[in-house]
Every structure is written in C-alpha cells, then in structure tokens.
Amino acid sequence: RRGEMAKSMQLIDNEVFRAYATYAAIVLLKMMLMSLITAYFRITRKAFANPEDTASFGKGESAKKYLRTDPDVERVRRGHLNDLENIIPFVGIGLLYALSGPELSTALLHFRIFAGARILHTLAYLIPLPQPGRGLSWAVGYSVTFSMAYRVLKTVLLL
Amino acid sequence: RRGEMAKSMQLIDNEVFRAYATYAAIVLLKMMLMSLITAYFRITRKAFANPEDTASFGKGESAKKYLRTDPDVERVRRGHLNDLENIIPFVGIGLLYALSGPELSTALLHFRIFAGARILHTLAYLIPLPQPGRGLSWAVGYSVTFSMAYRVLKTVLLL
Amino acid sequence: RRGEMAKSMQLIDNEVFRAYATYAAIVLLKMMLMSLITAYFRITRKAFANPEDTASFGKGESAKKYLRTDPDVERVRRGHLNDLENIIPFVGIGLLYALSGPELSTALLHFRIFAGARILHTLAYLIPLPQPGRGLSWAVGYSVTFSMAYRVLKTVLLL
Prior knowledge:
Three copies of one chain form a homotrimer.
Chain A: H1 2-13, H2 15-44, H3 61-64, H4 71-99, H5 104-126, H6 133-156
Helix pairs in contact in A: 2-4, 2-5, 4-5, 4-6, 5-6
Organism (chains A, B, C): Menura novaehollandiae (superb lyrebird)
Subunit structure (chains A, B, C): Homotrimer; The trimer binds only one molecule of glutathione.
Protein name (chains A, B, C): Microsomal glutathione S-transferase 1
C-alpha cells in the first residue's frame, strides 16, 4: 500500500506537474462553467432544444413555442464550443509539455498566459467586447499551445 | 528494454490508476458509441449533411432531398456534444485526481457514480425519458467531476 | 531540483511514451489547424456568426448581411467537430495504452495508422472526395482507438 502511494506521488511531487495540474483544473472548470451559463440563459430566455424540457410549460402548442433558438443561448454555446476546440488541446499538449522537463518559470509563464487569455476570451464573447478583443485573446491562447507543442516535438520526436 | 518496460509499468501497477484507466476507457468508448448511433439514424432516416454522402441515392434533385436535418439525428448529436462537454473534463480532471493519491475506495466511488450517471444520461436523452431524469443524471456527473477538481486543487495548488 | 527533473523524465525516456507524445501532438495540432481554416473561409466567404465580427464592414443593414452561414464554412466546422469526436478519444485512450506497456512496434503501428487515417479524413472532407473515402478513413481511425481501448481494459481492468 505504502509503496503504491509513493509511486503515485512521484508525478504530483514534481513542481512543473503541480503547476500543470493547477492550471489544467482551472481551465477545465472554466469550460464546465459554460454549461451552467447555457442552462441559465435557456431558462431565463425560455429557449429549449428538447420537447421534454418544455413539458413543465404545459402541453401541445403552448409548450412548443419554447422549442426555439435564442441569440444569447447560441452565443454561450459558441463560446463553449470554442473552449472545447482550444482548452482540450491545451490540456493534452500541456500534459506532454509538463512531462518534457521544462523550467518551472517557463512552464508557469505558458500556463498563466493561457489561462488568462481564455478567461478574457470568455468575457469578450459574453459581454460582448468589440473585436479584435475576442480574436486577440483567442490568438494568444492558440500561440501558447503551439509553443508547448513545438517544445514537446523537439524533445520527444519518435515517428 | 526491461528497464523501460518496468518504468512504464509504475503508474499502471497503481490500483487507483488502474481504476481510473478502466473507467476513463469505458466512458470514452460510450462517447464513441454516439458516432455509430448517429450513423445509424442518418442512414435509416436518410438525413445527411454532405452532398457526397447522398450520391448513392442518385444525382441532382433526387439526392438533394436527403440533405436535411432529422429530429432523431439531431437528438443523438446533442447527446454526443453533451458527452464531449462532460466526459472530456472527467477524463482530464480524473487523471490529475488519480495522481493526487486518493484512497482507492473514494476514487472508485467517484468513477462508478460518474460512469453510471453518464450511461443514464445517454438513455434519458435517447429514449427520451421525461425531465428531470436527464437533468439529474447530468448534475450528478457534473458534481463528481467538480468534487475531483476540488481535491486536485487542494492537493497540488501551485499558481 | 535535479531529483525532480529526473523523476519527470521517467515517462518521457520511455520509447513507447515518446512515440505516443509525438503522435498525440501531431493529431492535436492537425485538429487546431481546423480553427485557422475556419477563420480563412469565414473571412474569404464573408460569413460570420457574431455581429461584432462584422462591424468592420460598416453599420446596420450593410454589415448584417454578413451574419450568415456558408457551405464551405459549415463543411470545415463539421470536419472540426468530427476531429473533436475522434481525436480526443485517441489522445485519452492512447495515453492509457502507452502506459499499459505495449511493444514499441505495435504501438507505432497503431499511432501511425491513426494519424494517417485522420489526415486522410480531413483531406476527404475538405476537397471533398467521393464516398466511401471519408467514411473509410473515419472507420480506420475509430478501429485503431477501439483496438487500443481493448488492450487497456484487458491489461488494467479494475471495476
């Protein structure tokens, strides 16, 4: 039992891995928050995608009118999909990057800029801010992931 | 060679990590199953998204009518997207959680409840069951991932 | 410091893990490329999803006409979503597979076929190639991930 625990502790004792785990958890929680915001807008705007979700509003035609799209709901959903497209590559490539043995300060720089950029991206999407606010925050996060992927491939390449 | 193998075996010898690997594989396979169900409904409902997919039904207008959305296809696709939004955070946060050294029994409780909740969520979506069946199964899975993220951040926090 | 570095180096010194890291990074970068292709088509086809993205084309009705869907944009977006549905399970299950101690040659075979199949899938989607080109490349990638999941479950099963 002790031995196993010790083994499982090796990665988590590494500072770069701890920093990775912290920021990966933060950006994944931020992504999960989009589900709650979608639910909030679906309920307040009364705009649902499934007939069974509108059953509490009555039967037949009276409920059917709530089966509709709403601009605010669609906006949050686009933000959520953009998170899936960008945060998941960060989590996957970031894990490989953390295992490739970077300096702690360099790793923290990557993780902090990415997390900040994605939080700004969500704010820019939901407020919404005028462009190029959202575009720039997207580009910064994208570049951080690309920079980590470059280091991973340079360090481990085995085709 | 032997040494390398031994090294790669460390994580996989850990019981918590084996439990994680088992449930992560199960929920990812469940998510992949949605692709097959989508294909099944696209073919049986004759509802496709790409012109090249309808070419076998003939040319021109006769094939064009199969370029359409179908309620059953869209329902499976919504279930698939919900899996992406919920199962992927579980797989990412669950890995960090498994490495944070939890008790095996606590970890198994998290993994089993999550897998059960997501299987129920898919059934509730596809049958479909009346609400709040789908809503509750979603909330249970969401809470499990949140509980694991809380433990990860409490254990490793390095900002 | 040295000790930590050494620890973090264990996984990355393993050849199977290096091969996994290489191919996981490649397919995630390929997936990220879809964002750039979407942006390219949105700009050249002048088809945007957010009012704030069309502000540079003027105010009011003159800009509103660019808030529309375009067949080329939607095609890239379907390809991107298909990547999320298939590449992410590969990255998750592939990690567990790499840690389950497979032979390097077997692992490389899986990773190379998957990466090749997904690159073909993107080409088949974007050109587009007549079916069953896209369908077959999808099925090959799907089968590789399934084969890895089978080995993971056979090796680690702990329910």
